[in-house]
Amino acid sequence: MAYSLDLAGRVALVTGASGGLGEQFAKTLAKAGAAVVLASRRTDRLMALRAHIEAAGGDAHVVAMDVTDHASIKAAVAHAETEVGAIDILINNSGVSATQRLQDVSEEDYDYIFDTNTKGAFFVAQEVGRRMLARANGAAPGTYVGGRIVNIASMAGLKVLPQIGVYAMSKAAVVQMTKAMATEWGRFGINVNAICPGYIDTELNNHHWKTEQGQKLISMLPRKRVGAPTDLDALLVMLCATESHFINGAVIAADDGFAV
């Protein structure tokens, strides 16, 4: 007898889906049965990902979204719901980083990180959350009342590391944002949780792990290894599933024990 989590009939919006963790999140949710809406500025990458998901038997759609532009967020969410249906699941994944000592951070550097990681994440969740609230209050159509929002924070939001201080600050804000949304929206059946990934090997940082500095960092990790994007699959699906109705406001480290 097997236990399975089925997302069939659900619509999931994944921001930052054009690469890295976002790409894997989209593939995972499609494999679990959800209709996946892929959102990013790089729509050429999204089209290739959609073709990959459809070739595997999944259901995927593409919307252009710039999370630093409020009008773009509103237009993308409206487009997604018009084309696919009410959004049941949001994977709030868009994020950027920079490696700098704090004394070298300019106002432009600070805004670059916070505009995407904190402000952008908030207004994406707000736009989707408003629509989930409207369905819960009977003011908008939808077969599924409630919802699942998964904010992708970082273990850096729990454990500050040198030279990524502003990034850590932005992700710590996402952790508190998650708790605030869970507190206000939980009674409407909208569960808001956060995943705090540790060091994950993606196309964006793969080269780093082969350098002397990267190897030194790996030697400092609890089990001397970095994770793979697939290592987050089970946690992601669990937080999106109907069965996770009792999990709200959780901030879950998926970092191989690094932040302990």
Structure commentary:
Helices cover 41% and strands 15% of the residues. It is an alpha/beta fold. The chain has one domain: 3-Layer(aba) Sandwich (Rossmann fold). It has a 7-stranded parallel beta sheet with strand order 3-2-1-4-5-6-7, sandwiched between helices. The longest helix is centred in the middle third of the chain and has 30 residues, at 107-136.
Short overview:
The chain is an alpha/beta fold. The protein is built from seven helices and seven strands.
Distance between the termini: 35 Å
Poorly predicted runs are none
For CATH, the homologous superfamily is named as NAD(P)-binding Rossmann-like Domain
Strand/helix succession: EHEHEHEHEHEHHE
The percent range for strand residues is 15-25%
Number of domains: 1
Please state the second-level CATH architecture: 3-Layer(aba) Sandwich
Radius of gyration: 18 Å
Shape: globular
CATH class assignment: Alpha Beta
CATH topology group: Rossmann fold
Number of helices: 7
How would you write the strand order of the largest sheet?
Answer: 3-2-1-4-5-6-7
Assembly state (oligomeric): single chain
Instruction: Give the rounded overall mean pLDDT.
Output: 95
Count of strand segments: 7
Main sheet: strands, sense, barrel: 7 strands, parallel
Structural class: alpha/beta
What percentage of residues falls in helices of 4 or more residues?
40-55%
